[in-house]
Give the backbone structure.
Amino acid sequence: MDKLIAFKVFCLENYKTVHNLTGKTALDIFQKHKVFDYITSYFDILHSFGRLYIVNDIDDFIANSTRDSGSLDGNPG
């Protein structure tokens, strides 16, 4: 398996576990907020950190993307 794909799965599984979500819910969040694109862009940096740091970083990324969009559901207004 490609290292990037394996890391994306690692991030998704840990996010799911830390937040006590189903796989589908975690995947929906990652897709909605383009978390996989973020992971791809910052793979070289992120893969050197620990599990909880990565989950917290993803939380920050999602919070910023939500704030930038103007609403919790990602739709302006």
Residues 18-69 form one domain. Confidence is low (pLDDT under 50) at residues 71-77. Helices lie at 3-18, 23-32, 35-41, 43-46, 51-69.
